[in-house]
Specification:
With 441 residues, the protein is of the alpha/beta class. Helix content is 55%, strand content 10%. It is built from 20 helices and 8 strands.
Length: 441
C-alpha cells in the first residue's frame, strides 16, 4: 500500500537525518523533495503546495527538544499534516432508520458491487440484519455477481431481473426489508465507464426516491487524480456523504487518498483491499499517515485480531500450551485465524519497521495452503502425535496433499522447533514455587 510514495517520502526525509538543528535551508530542501514526491504520487498540485507550505511553516516554528532529533521532529510534523490533510479523524457512519438505507455509487469497474458485499458482511458481523438490493440493471451478470457474493456471506439479495426501472427496484427492496424485519438495506447501483448524463440522472432519481441515510461514492484508488476529478463531478450532482477507496492492495500512488478530502470536501469513510469479503476497514487518517511514512499501524492490527479472536479457543489453547501439548490441530487452527484477518502483506505492513523489510516482496496469500493440505492429509492420530510419522507415512501424506516429502519434512521440522521454543517459555515462566508466572495469564 502506497509503496512508491513511502519510498519517495523516506528518501526526502533522509536529508534531515543527522542534522544538528532545523534551519531554513535544510527544511526548504526537504520540503522541496516532499512536494516532488507528492506530485509524482499524483496528488493535486494545489493540495501538494498547500501541505508543504504548512509543513515548512510548522517545522520552522517548532523548538527542538533535546531528546528529539530534527529528523524525528520533522517526521512528526509531516505525519500530523498528512493526517490532517486526510480528515484528521475517522468519519462517522450511521445508517440508522427503519430500515437504514445505504446508497452505493461510482463508475463501472471501481469495485462497487464487491464493496457492497464487504459492507454488508461487516454490518452483519456487527449484529445487523442486512439486505442487498441489485439495482445495476445494465451490466451483464451484475445481479448474478451480487447474488453469488450474497451466498458467500449469507446475506439476502433483492433482485428483479426483468425490471429495468432502478427506482422501482430500490423502493421494492426497502418494502421487502421492512416486511422481513431487516435493519439495513444496501443499494448497489449502475455505473458507466465514464460519467454520462443518463447515469447521473438515474442515480439522482434513485437517491431522491429512497432518501438514504448514507450515500457512498466508491472510487478505484489506482486511478489517482482521475478518481478525484470523478468524485468532484459526482458530488456536484449527488452530494454524497463519504468516499470509499478500493484496490489499495495494488501499487497505489496515493494521489486519491491525499487529495480527495481537500478537493471534494467529503471524508473518506472506508478503504478496501483484495477480493475477500472481510477486506474492508474504517478509514483512520492518523493511522494511514503512519503507514504512508512506514511507521506501521499496530492499532488496526490489534483490531483485526480482535475481530477473529475466539475466547473459548484461546482458553483451550492456553491450557495445552501450559501442558506442552500443542499439536498440529492447534497449528492449523492458528493458521486459519490468521487468514481470517485478511491480506498477509497488508498485515505485515502494519508492524512498525516491517514495511521496509518486505518492500517489493511478492507475498502470496496462498502461502499457507501447502501447510493446510499437508495437515489435512494426516490422520487424526498423526496430527495429535506427529512423532509417529515415519518415512512411509510421509510419502502417503505428500501424495495426498500434492506436495513433496521434503515439504512434509520441512513442516515437521518447523513444528518441532516451535514446540521446543514453547517448552522453553514454559520453563522460564516457572518460579521456584513451581507456579506459572504471567507467561500465559
Amino acid at each position: 500500500m502506497f509503496e512508491s510514495l513511502n519510498t519517495r517520502l523516506d528518501s526526502a526525509l533522509k536529508t534531515l537525518k543527522g542534522q544538528g538543528r532545523i534551519s531554513e535551508i535544510n527544511v526548504a530542501n526537504t520540503v522541496k523533495e516532499i512536494r516532488k514526491a507528492l506530485l509524482e504520487a499524483d496528488v493535486n498540485y494545489n493540495v501538494a503546495k498547500q501541505i508543504t507550505n504548512e509543513i515548512k511553516e510548522e517545522a520552522m516554528g517548532r523548538k527542538v527538544l533535546t531528546a528529539v532529533s530534527p529528523g524525528q521532529l520533522f517526521v512528526k510534523v509531516v505525519n500530523d499534516k498528512l493526517a490532517e490533510l486526510m480528515g484528521g479523524q475517522a468519519a462517522a457512519f450511521n445508517p440508522k432508520g427503519n430500515p437504514g438505507v445505504v446508497l452505493i455509487s461510482g463508475l463501472q469497474g471501481s469495485g462497487k458491487t464487491t464493496f457492497t458485499a464487504k459492507l454488508a458482511n461487516m454490518l452483519k458481523k456487527q449484529g445487523n440484519q442486512v439486505l442487498m438490493a441489485a439495482c445495476d440493471i445494465y451490466r451483464p451478470a451484475a445481479i448474478d455477481q451480487l447474488k453469488s457474493l450474497g451466498e458467500q456471506i449469507d446475506v439476502e439479495v433483492y433482485a428483479e431481473p426483468e425490471n429495468k426501472n432502478a427506482v422501482e427496484i430500490a423502493n421494492n427492496a426497502i418494502k421487502s426489508a421492512k416486511a422481513s424485519g431487516k435493519s439495513i438495506v444496501i443499494v448497489d447501483t449502475a455505473g458507466r465507464l465514464a460519467v454520462d448524463e443518463a447515469m447521473m440522472k438515474e442515480i439522482t432519481e434513485v437517491k431522491k426516491a429512497i432518501n438514504p441515510q448514507e450515500t457512498l461514492f466508491v472510487v478505484d484508488s489506482m486511478t489517482g487524480q482521475d478518481a478525484v476529478n470523478t468524485a468532484k463531478t459526482f458530488n456536484e450532482r449527488l452530494n454524497f456523504d463519504g468516499v470509499v477507496l478500493t484496490k489499495l492492495d495494488g501499487d497505489t500512488r496515493g494521489g486519491a487518498a491525499l487529495s480527495i478530502r481537500t478537493v471534494v470536501e467529503k471524508p473518506i469513510k472506508f478503504i478496501s483491499t483484495g477480493e475477500k469479503p472481510d477486506t474492508i476497514d474504517v478509514f483512520h487518517p492518523d493511522r494511514m499517515a503512519q503507514r504512508i511514512l512506514g511507521m506501521g499501524d499496530v492499532v488496526s492490527l490489534v483490531e483485526k485480531a480482535q475481530q477473529v479472536f475466539d475466547e473459548e479457543e484461546a482458553k483451550r489453547l492456553n491450557k495445552k500450551l501450559r501442558k506442552n501439548q500443542f499439536d498440529l490441530n492447534d497449528l492449523l487452527s492458528q493458521i486459519q485465524q490468521i487468514q481470517k484477518m485478511g491480506n498477509i502483506k497488508s498485515l505485515m505492513e502494519m508492524i512498525p519497521g516491517m514495511g521496509k523489510m518486505i518492500k517489493g516482496a511478492d507475498i502470496d496469500d496462498d502461502a499457507f495452503k501447502p501447510i493446510e493440505a499437508i495437515i489435512f492429509s494426516m490422520t487424526p492420530q498423526e496430527r495429535e502425535k506427529p512423532e509417529i510419522i515415519n518415512s512411509t507415512r510421509k510419502k502417503r501424506i505428500a501424495n495426498g496433499s500434492g506436495t513433496s516429502v521434503q515439504q512434509v519434512n520441512g513442516l515437521l521440522k518447523q513444528f518441532n522447533e516451535m514446540k521446543k521454543a514453547m517448552k522453553k517459555m514454559n520453563m522460564m515462566g516457572m518460579g521456584k514455587k513451581g507456579k506459572m508466572r504471567g507467561m500465559f495469564g
